[in-house]
Amino acid sequence: MPEKGAFGLSTEEDREYVEYVSAAFDRLRRTAYLLCGDGHRADDIVQAALVSLYLHWKRARKVANLDGYVHRILVRRYIDERRAAWAKVLLAWRDTSVPAPAVRSVEDTHAVGDALAALTRGQRAVLVLRYFCDMSVQETAAALGCSTGTVKSQTARGLAALRDLLGEEWHPRAVTTDKRSVR
User: Fold this and answer.
1) Cα–Cα distance measured from residue 72 to residue 129, given in angstroms and rounded to the nearest whole number
2) CA gap 7, 80 in Å, rounded
């Protein structure tokens, strides 16, 4: 009889979970940071998503698109965290200005971060999943539990809003991934 770990998972299932999380953790944390714009909140969101994933690991490990499944959990935890009353409490000692690692100049990073923060949650989630996580329209729709039409319209509106927010003076190199351009 296989050895059982916590929550009725076998040691093999526990090992698979640890392997998946070890490989995906940095990517999930960066995605959460892009969603919320705060390193500490990103850690909380990832932790909540990974706890939920562990509790449902028996089912999750069998899905065809595990990354999409986990991104959907992550986005839901972000939305749930935004709704929670305690999320509105700001502790005096907490430094909320932890920037993401800059690939471009610091000014560009802050400009894009501020522009993302000004978008609606839906637009931000779609843009992060499509362009940062490099998901297709179908994968994004599956991760968010919406139609492909919703993904397309939220992407178009989000990109238009980013262009308006960033203005003419901001001219980054075009970032093209899988025939999708941020410009």
Assistant:
1) 10
2) 24
Q: How far apart are CA 36 and CA 41, in angstroms?
A: 7
Q: pLDDT (tens digit, 9 = 90+) per residue, 108-150?
A: 677 778 888 889 989 999 999 998 888 899 989 988 889 999 9
Q: Is the pLDDT reported for residue 94 higher than 90?
A: no
Q: Following CA atoms 119, 120, 125, 127 in sequence, which dihedral angle do they give, to the nearest 10 degrees?
A: -40
Tokens matching residue 122:
């839906």
* Consecutive H or E run containing 49: helix 39-55
Exposure of 173 by Cβ count < 10 A (0-12 exposed, 13-18 middle, 19+ buried)? exposed
| Secondary structure string (H, E, C) spanning 98-167 | CCCCCCCCHHHHHHHHHHHHHCCHHHHHHHHHHHHCCCCHHHHHHHHCCCHHHHHHHHHHHHHHHHHHHC
How far apart, in whole angstroms, are the C-alpha atoms of residue 168 and residue 71?
A: 33
**Other beta carbons less than 10 A from residue 71's beta carbon:** 26
Taking phi over 0 as left and psi of -120 to 50 as alpha, with beta for the rest, 90 belongs to beta
The model's pTM is 0.55
